[in-house]
Amino acid sequence: MTVQFSDKKLSALFDMPMGVHQIPDSQVILSGHQDIRSVESILGPAGFDLAARKNSELGQALTVRLTEPAQEIARELIAGPVLSQRYTSLPADDAPYLEVRSSVILTLQGEEMIKPFIVLHAELKFGGTNFIQWQGRYIASSGPAKPIRGDESWLSDDGKALNANILKSLKKAIDVMLHDVASPYPRSANRLIAVKGYYPYLNTPLQTVGYQLAEDATYMTFLPKLSNAVIFAGVNIVDKDTVEIRPASADDEVYKVIH
Question: How many domains does the chain have?
Fold first, then answer.
């Protein structure tokens, strides 16, 4: 099986809510601002105008393309002893392949703070066809939210903090995706957890109940028990320092808005 990252955009109909703002010529999407702040008040002219972006540090930092770095990360991971048994870098006409679309979702939390999420939309297809055998989302985030502009913000120092955060989450999302597709993590009803925090696209914190899939020193990987029609459904990889996690109880709602 090969892995092919694509420049195709996420589906406006199935993968995101109404009112998001796609940064032109970039794989960055702004959300969570709907009914709270205008895009221009957050990003300024660089959020809309290509000419303004080319002539500003803000605009250049928002010009993010994930396809090439994602493909390189996947290539390095596949070279490892475990994944190399299931994946190859040499495509064959009749072999299945994993086609992956990717985006950065800058999600406004409250009125000032922004949290970047990496969203991967993976489709397993038969070789030589467009027939989708399976599809799913992988969503990763790292560290706390920050202001988008100003001192110690995502875009200060030529956007170095934003770029480092994106690459960190991207690598984690790809690693989890490759392992889960190759040998799916068990979805056990005996390992249900409740996770309270922010999710991509939404300004309001939520609590969801889902299957705990994996855990390391930094991240919790879980699958909320939600329909795929929900925009943040799929395997979520969260920084444990940014959420509240506990074992789920029988009376927990699968999905609850935190007021």
Answer: 2
